[in-house]
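Researcher: Sequence of Histidine kinase/HSP90-like ATPase domain-containing protein follows. Predict its structure.
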Amino acid sequence: MSIALRLALHLPRDAATVPMARRLLDQALRTLGVEPTCRDDIGLILTEACANVIEHARDIDDYEISIEVTDVRCVIHVVNDGSVIDPGRLVLATEMTTTELAATDFAVLDEHGRGLHIIRALADELYLTPATAGGLILRTVTTLRWTADAEIWQRR
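Model: Prediction complete. Tokens:
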């Protein structure tokens, strides 16, 4: 047996939407039986991705989140159609090797420059691509870890 869950949210660019989206995702993952520390990591990924939209995409009124959960992974897309992003600003977070990332002293980074590094450290995969009308699409992939109670999802 396998599972598939899809969540799609169209939200105003407002800071209050960030904890709401995180709680909604956490509750869904908890119900399915995803292990608590895995849920925490995924929640932080979503929080950082949404906070980046709230902070940096000031020329838009709303943004979209889509989440796909299977018995293997959680894929998160956060899309904003705001201003075009300078790709040079994104290279460091997406092209660091695992060794370089592990050696990074996040304490020396500007508080507003840590989000993508945190996402990169927690997600198995991180992709940043330009949105069609400008803005950015952030896509992360995280392998799920299940509680013992969720073993039904592991049978295939």
